[in-house]
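Is iron/sulfur cluster placement plausible here? Inputs below.
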Amino acid sequence: MYNPTHIYYMITIQCNQKCSKCSHWKQKDNAKRLPTEKIVKAIKSIPTARELCIVGGEPLLFKTEIYEILNELSDTPIRTTIITNGVLMDKPFIEKVAKHNIHIVVSIDTLDKEFWKFVRGTNSYERVFENLESATTDNGSLEKKYNFVIN
Ligand code: SF4
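Reply from A.M.:
I modeled the complex. Tokens:
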């Protein structure tokens, strides 16, 4: 019997960065969006599920869908992990998700501002670190565990 505990959901392949190491942002994603109810129904149909990992592309391009999924899973033992590049991880987003059973992983490729531009293809360094600062100082009730992917 196969009893999966971890589910990965690629919510989109679209991205708001242009990383030199990745081609996701070059892809067109013209597919019709799957209704959130169907996603949640599929997840809830797996009684052994304990972890949902939402990945992209950039998941936070679809914040409304993330809020809906989190609300729908709030009566389950499933913890949700969101892997983000941090650009859209603003204060309103953190305030909305902090009450849920959630784990946010922010990908940080380098601490060098100039190299960041090369790696990410954008000037998002300051925005990402402002968002990180805000998330870690303004939300006393939020359990803070940030994993950094530093290459
Ligand atoms: S942020 Fe992630 S998904 Fe987006 S282009 Fe960079 S590596 Fe690819």
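Short version: The mean pLDDT is 91.
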